[in-house]
Amino acid sequence: MKYLIKITILISLLVNIAYAQEVELKNSKYDITQCIKVKYTKEDIENYKKLINQGELQGYSCAGIYYMRQGNFDEAINYFNKGKEKGSIEAYGQLGSLYSSFLHDYKKAVKNYKIAANAGDRKAAHNLGVYYYKNFTYDEAYKWFMKSYETGDLNSLISIGLMYEDQKKYDEAISTFKKVGELGEPRGYRSLGILFIKNKDVKNDIEGIKYLKKCYEMGYGLCAGGLGTYYEEYKKDYKKAIEWYKKGFELKNEVSTSRLGLLYEEILKDYPKAIYWYAKGFNEIKCIDCAFNLAMFYNIDIKDYKKAEEWYKKAADLKDIGAMYNLGYMFEYDLKDKKNAIIWYKKAAKLGDKKAINKLIDLGVSYE
Fold first, then answer.
1. Rounded distance between C-alpha atoms, residue 163 and residue 167, angstroms
2. CA 308, 309, 310 angle in degrees (round to 5)?
């Protein structure tokens, strides 16, 4: 009987291997970014299922991403696996992301990433580089980052520069970041600016400011925020900081705008201007941190719970987990409204917030 079981298992494995070899891995021209949203509706999943029925390979990944973002990982895996059965390279890469980012099963993540990466998926190759980088396996990380870069991914070249920096190979890091900038990617100059300003071994503020300005001149608003931060934190020159943060806002940079609000609120104590910039940031460029910070201001400093609820909900509607948790906390402790507290803790818990899960456990409520 034992031999029969072993033979059956062996036959099953051979069939699966043969089947895997027969499946031709394929790319689709359908833009998968159309399926990546902050907020989904029931119509979205119906549309993704229609794509599948129409024979569109990316439909499986779109449906998988939909369920993954809803926290329904079993259904997400189901659709990604169906995509794999049809030979979808994207499905392998997305399944790798699910195992890595949500289920923390890195063995399965690496297995799926490698299949996608070896089939030419740059994102999967980059994610493999990140995995090995985080585990200090630099040679392996370099190999996968280079594989991704060779397909045109400058993110991976930036990661190689950061890896050199971690290893204190500063000449190589500087050369790599410059190359990224020269290839037209402003984040290369940003990384160079940060390196010169923050790293004590090669600190050179003049060079740092020069490269952050080059980055800003290429239209990258985060570098305006970086210059604002430099003048705020290193020089205490709040006038120049405000000037640069406003330049960042003009380029629709959220970090610059939220920092501008914080500067007015926490350092200059100019609350009307803080409120103005937080609201302006959210209303004009959907700065989630601006809504969250304004809610915190009303919640903690002003004790205006109605306005705090309004602004927390604006951030929560854009999937901000911190806003969901804070709403639960405010309802529980400030408003003594256990029912609404549980509702918001559950929303945060569904997205994986551990503090919210612990709160629900303390309240004797299932978070499933």
1. 6
2. 90
- The fold for domain 32-119 equals 1.25.40
CA-nearest of 152, 146, 206 to 184 is 152
The one-letter code for the residue type at 110 is V
pTM for this prediction: 0.82
Is residue 35 a contact partner of residue 66, using CB atoms and an 8 Å limit?
yes
Per-residue pLDDT of the chain (368 residues; tens, 9 = 90+): 444 444 444 444 433 443 344 568 988 999 999 999 878 999 999 999 999 999 999 999 999 999 999 899 999 999 999 999 999 999 999 999 999 999 999 999 999 999 999 999 999 999 999 999 999 999 999 999 999 999 999 999 999 999 999 999 999 999 999 999 999 999 999 999 999 999 999 999 999 999 999 999 999 999 999 999 999 999 999 999 999 999 999 999 999 999 999 999 999 999 999 999 999 999 999 999 999 999 999 999 999 999 999 999 999 999 999 999 999 999 999 999 999 999 999 999 988 899 999 999 999 998 76
170: left (phi over 0), alpha (psi -120 to 50) or beta: alpha
120 φ/ψ sector (left φ>0, alpha ψ -120 to 50, else beta): left
Q: Do domains 32-119 and 136-218 have the same CATH topology?
A: yes
Closest to 213 measured CA to CA, from 232, 200, 197, 237: 197
* CB atoms near residue 205 (< 10 Å): 13
One of 1.20.1050.10, 1.25.40.10, 1.10.357.20, 1.20.1440.230 is the CATH number of 136-218, namely: 1.25.40.10
